[in-house]
């Protein structure tokens, strides 16, 4: 395989009520395992990347179920630290129409939130790897996990790897101000920055809003924001998602990519949503794949956006779609293949 | 709790084919229990109301399943008369696109249709209660149940309670003419009248049509109809639903509220429907909650309509949504809460 | 019964992932049996036609499951040849939004693909029958099945029956060129031709394109194509489907019918799709029913199109809808029936 | 086909809780259709008999679902009268261990209970048929259905057909005394009598008990009872089931067959029960098949008992097992066939 | 109602894999809520007792789902403290044959484990109540919950209530030695003691083994153990379960009851197990019901044991069985009721 | 990891009807992937072995689903040849009581049956591996696959690896005579031979029966058969399963192990069967693990038999049980672990 990838992040048990039922009505949960960084790893594996995950997962049957779930999609789990008390989890109710999706978190004191930098043998974990990815969520869950991410970033840069972040704000986990404060010191390691144009943490960090009103959206409209980020933090490249929420079932979805000089805006997808969780991770994976391949900004923006679009149509967090399928979605073809 | 509520009505076993399958294809049914008045009681309990149900339910395992189902949502079932031969039921096929939802009723000779006024100890049933609610369906199912509703209305008025009706026409149960004839004598007890602007029974009773063409819909356009109802029957308040059916999956949905002097029209919701049954009951509950709280007409119209909108997004008849969720829907927010 | 119908074609086991899951994720399959010609037979039975199927199905438990599945909808299976090694099958993943539906075929060397003309006792199979129907797919699967279809066509014409074809191209089974070559010799038997206005095989056979751009669609716009078909091959009547694919969930859908002199275009349905497979077969059945009843072109076009529209709203291949339901859909009514 | 068979009886919707759940817990029901006589017809079809059903089933979607369900197993439903208000139904909870299975009936005033003799065109219904079967249940549900059975018996005897009864007592439907009184006049038509050795109705009719204690069970121990039945009512043959209930999951199961002179007792099966409903019908079908084939008493007893044994291992009422499978079960082989 | 009952204990979310699947294989969990004391309350409600639960459950959607689940069975949840961070949970894999059931606990730091005595208004919580029940598990989960139980015991004795304990050892939660140490100070309040004859904590507390080898089991064989308990701790009555585990599916099950002078041993049930969790709670409820009714020792032993036996046949923790059903099971009847 | 393992064999899609339903009734299939050699690999991975699979699997979505399924359990799939037309499959109906499990194979012309020796790069496939395993089934499916197995055996012996076979007869795939003929030339490579004591192929190859009547079963009773095998073919070790089939749900199960000098017979397990497929593979894996660890004959026999016993209690082919769980089952403990 031409490309490889290593990421650090938490994997959670996600307990989703079937058929959009309310949490208070549920008698059954669909059980999957996922987490933003792991989702990116799985999506990249579909394109031919060889991905590995660094995480901490308890050494019990639920932890094993989690590891089994991940490795079915070809992610190398040999770097996972198998210890800790519990796997974090959350309950998810998928919304419909005027009813938004809702999450009840039960992730405090998870094994991953209590990871420590010394639990990972960084030189051997990163040996022979080219790309290191993390997200804001891993920094949000605890100071220990932030310290571990920082250790990873330092080791990655020392090894000459490309480092990417997906900001991935979660207002239930921390305030934008706390987020900005904890993420700021990590920015020095980042080469490729990915996030939402409306990310409140990014807004605070850059001192400006990335959001552009629908009627004003052009590639150039996003240039000041992207240039500010690049100039302030020294990022090489930046990718941004642009989402308008019409209802739980229908969103408009677009993406921006800035390669440091050129900026491109993808075409707009009107999404009919099956499962929103993991949509942004699909975008991140698409953007990383574009960067890995050295595509031009329009290609990256279109591919990343289409990749995120498909991710919205698949149950679960993982975007199990091939490069050919993403390219077809980018080109707008949806006829049955038979 | 600040508010309480007692209602009389039938609870049916609803047998729904999974995944919109046709009745003729079904090998499985989802089983829930519901009925328009009970649905209103459950929705009100979510807002903090203490609700009780008067009904007649057989003293067998299916009757017990029904009672269990209701009381899980906090409805007081101690007033339910436990006797009779059978629980009424209906088969429901949820439609899709150009295929409408379809119902096969099997509710004749149900326990509730054979209830008699003397089976309820009215003074003790209503003691300490402030609000009495019934619907046209309970009058449609038999003369005995109509007589029992009438006895309840008299007792409620004697006890100084507020009385509300949801007209709730069902063309499969009676003709509009029969409906008008049987409901007319009960109007003297009604304080709060709720119904569809297109209700054919109401049309006959008032001698005018409540329906307004989409382009002409303003609050004032509904004033003549509401004023006629109030002046003819002495209602204090009136709430009306306004629905346009684009397909089984998509309806437009709006509401009107008239407090006797001011009239308001809610904003229009474009509904993506999960389960239409109970939508109107959500509206009724929202309107009653608004009246209980003394909100202004625009607030009542918006809350009732949003409450009905959410009810369309939840499997089953019951609208299990909090006041905060209804207010959020009224304000148009549908982003995932996490 | 006033009408009868006999058709020849393959019936496949269709293994569909539940809830639009990807094939690579599936742990369960919904199992139904269907095939384009059989689907037409079932749809016609709902209207009161007495249908029979000629096919070859193995004499094992899966073959019996297939026969049982078909005969529950009233199709006479006594003409089915019970021998051969295996029932053909395919795996289906129903798409969503930007993700198209996908099929993995495993139908090579099926019992039906190895049928031979002599396995059917044609005189007795067709005795007393009035209408013989086949589709392009049966010709695509093998030369043996094509020869058997040809034998059927000859016997049907000899018996004075009406013969219909649904072209039903499948690019995964043969190239348009191969299709045109193999179907051409059968055209002499055909009275009623049904297909897609975009059918590539038909395009080659007629040397012209049937597709008309959305803005230019009038009944007369399709006249040259239909007249060419009728004049070249001597068809009596022709029916064409017109589909625009906006996404996996949403298509526009219309139909054309030419009775040899008059041509009509149906109204346009905006479909919210439950299950696309069998949609065209619903159209074919509707068109055949219209021809059987001698309706005028507008009636045939509207009925066939509405019939196909309903077929898109029903899980599985079979369009189990009554004539009254199709007429209601043609007239645009979708309110819940209760 | 060498044999044919016509039977009259009610078909009910059976709503079973999944996984042995209690009725009071159920949120889902498995829906099948069955009835003792129809169950016999289906079981016989598996052996190659051409069966037909006389019944009354409402002309609505649930009635159609019922007809579809039956005809998938090859039963001719063209004699079914399609009218009446409702399909009878029952709720079934399958027991486990010390908890017995439980039934809640909701079958009063079903279409079949209101059938009348004149609704069936007896001469044409029975034309060309050789065997007429009914059960005590059809007589238990109403006087009208009893009268219709009587009309059928008379017509069958007039046509020279063999008539069989399965006594099939149901204590929830009538008392043994009522049963004896209503069945007695029909005995004159019966050639083949089938029942439980412990049937209380039969006990009253014959004035003696058929039950034999386990340690005393020999073929000859049942001779006095069988001879009394044959001498009193003029039956040609008699078949009796012998069951000991150890728990809901485990029964011992045996059968007796008396051909008027020789009597045989089958080997004893220790049953691990999947679904008890329809077990006796499997025995009846097995006995009838044995009589049709002129097997010797031991063969009939063994086949009928094994057929009933298999019926206990299949979900639903219908015993879909081939003659070869029954013979294998009779011989005691249970290894996986692969 | 003649009897009432209040209990304190934790309610957990129980996530069970369907169909005995291994935890490491699961893609779905059945979700119920239960806990030993709550299970006793539900079982008693079936007999006509009016039960209430004291617990601490978080004020989020999962907490509400839990409350809804409990109150469907008629348990008064108004005393539940609605605060805390999380609902404790456990994953359950139901065993089969040689494979034992397995539990993964994730209950640390649950809302209930952090309850404090002052969170409950004891005088008003216990006002008008006659019986107070707790179990060893509530003491095992934390010192705070033990202190709260102790406060409850003191208040109950002050109010003249009967106090019962079910020892209910869990080796995963504490060692027998710790258990003995923490439970010892509470014994002074206990009137009715319930436990396993093999309970290791009880063994330590009494300094003797309660277990009797199968061949030596008579009522009198258990007398020394019961008398020691009564004399050492001043219990009024004692009930003991006796279980032999042949496999995950098959246990032998018996019960002992000592009323302070007479001792009785129930008949032995050979259980075919559906769901073992809650079996002992069924026994406890049966014993308490027997004591409430003043039955003689043999009656109490038989009823408690049969009640526990039925509890093993029902999915979930709750024993939803009527007194009549328990009496039938005690008498050994398992025929289908129809 | 201390041990590694490479095996060659076919992986099939297994389509099982839920809840023991008959194939002719199924509307749904549970889909898993498995095959005897792959099953052994998965079971060994649970013990800590590093396993790899050589197979041929088509390069389509179903092939990918298969690969994903396998690698979730830690099997290295990088040696799998991804080409060919179709994945073989079979339909499985799990029996109950007197009804045996039944299989309908649809595996002809699968990708694996058309594998050729040259498709595998043997030196690199086997580099660094110590154990090579195959089974009789792979030889049964085609001459090409037999040739590939032979190539593997030669390469394995050349590399100094241990070679094992599980005879695994399938009467539906070949006759014992054909089996004996095709397997005989491979025996020269085999070190460890595993099979059923009743294997008809082995019986022919050795010219004697391995089966011993239940009353005569001692370790020494199997010695002549094992010694004959060892002396004729030069095996180092031999392990044999001993099964008595009481019903589909209940088998007795025992195992024999001969290390070339000592012979041992395990204790007898009375199995309550959840899923029989893969039971023998569990035994094979247990025997191989015992040999890898150099345990004594009694330990190997007990472990292998308990391992096979657990495999009968798990849905699907794979025996996902830890060494500790197998040891507990070998010692007879089945209490719930909590």
CATH-derived topology of chain A? UDP-N-acetylmuramoyl-L-alanine:D-glutamate ligase
* Separation, N- and C-terminal Cα atoms of chain A: 30 Å
Shape of chain A: globular
Oligomer: homohexamer
Number of helices of chain A: 11
Q: Proportion of β residues of chain A?
A: 15-25%
Helix and strand pattern of chain A: EEEHEHEEHEHHEHEHHEEEEHHH
Integer count of domains of chain A: 1
Would you count the extended β strands of chain A for me?
Answer: 13
Give the largest interface pair and sizes: A-E, 29 and 29 residues
User: How much helix, percentage-wise, in residues of chain A?
Assistant: 25-40%
Regarding CATH, which class of chain A? Answer: Alpha Beta
Mean pLDDT of chain A: 95
**Alpha-beta classification of chain A:** alpha/beta
Give a nutshell description of this structure.
With 338 residues, chain A is α/β, with parallel strands linked by helices.
Which tags fit this structure?
338 residues, nine-stranded mixed sheet, 13 strands, homohexamer, 11 helices, UDP-N-acetylmuramoyl-L-alanine:D-glutamate ligase, four-stranded mixed sheet, alpha/beta
Topology record:
The structure is a homohexamer of 338-residue chains.
Chain A lengths: L3 E5 L3 E5 L11 E7 L1 H12 L2 E5 L6 H11 L17 E5 L8 E5 L15 H5 L4 E5 H6 L1 H16 L3 E5 L9 H8 L8 E5 L3 H7 L16 H11 L3 E9 L4 E9 L4 E3 L3 E4 L6 H15 L3 H15 L11 H9 L7
Parallel strand pairs in A: 1-4, 1-7, 2-5, 7-8, 8-9, 9-10
Antiparallel strand pairs in A: 2-3, 5-6, 10-11, 11-12, 11-13
């Amino acid at each position: 395989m031409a490309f490889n990838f290593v990421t650090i992040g938490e994997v959670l048990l996600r307990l989703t009520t079937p058929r959009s039922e309310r949490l208070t009505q549920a008698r059954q949960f669909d059980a999957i395992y996922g987490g933003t960084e792991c989702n990116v790893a799985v999506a990249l594996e579909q394109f031919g990347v060889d991905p590995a995950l660094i995480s901490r997962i308890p050494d019990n049957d639920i932890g094993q179920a989690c590891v089994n779930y991940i490795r079915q999609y070809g992610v190398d789990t040999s770097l996972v630290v198998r210890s800790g008390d519990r796997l974090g989890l959350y309950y998810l109710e998928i919304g419909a129409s005027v009813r938004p999706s809702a999450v009840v978190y039960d992730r405090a004191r998870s094994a991953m939130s209590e990871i420590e930098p010394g639990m990972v043998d960084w030189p051997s974990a990163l040996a022979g790897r080219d790309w290191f990815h993390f997200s804001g969520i891993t920094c949000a869950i605890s100071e220990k996990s932030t310290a571990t991410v920082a250790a990873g970033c330092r080791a990655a840069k020392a090894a000459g790897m490309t480092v990417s972040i997906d900001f991935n704000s979660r207002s239930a986990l921390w305030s934008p101000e706390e987020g900005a404060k904890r993420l700021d010191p990590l920015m020095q390691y980042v080469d490729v920055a990915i996030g939402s144009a409306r990310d409140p943490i990014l807004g605070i960090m850059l001192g400006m809003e990335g959001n552009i009103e629908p009627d004003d959206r052009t590639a150039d409209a996003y240039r000041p924001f992207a240039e500010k980020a690049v100039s302030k933090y020294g990022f090489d490249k930046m990718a941004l998602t642009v989402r308008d929420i019409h209802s739980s079932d229908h969103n408009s979805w677009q993406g921006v990519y800035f390669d440091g000089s050129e900026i491109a805006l993808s075409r707009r997808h009107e999404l009919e949503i099956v499962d929103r969780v993991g949509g942004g991770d699909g975008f991140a994976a698409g953007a990383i794949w574009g960067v890995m391949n050295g595509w031009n900004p329009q290609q990256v923006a279109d591919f990343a956006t289409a990749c995120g679009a498909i991710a919205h149509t698949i149950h679960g967090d993982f975007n199990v779609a091939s490069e050919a399928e993403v390219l077809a979605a980018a080109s707008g073809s949806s006829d049955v293949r038979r």
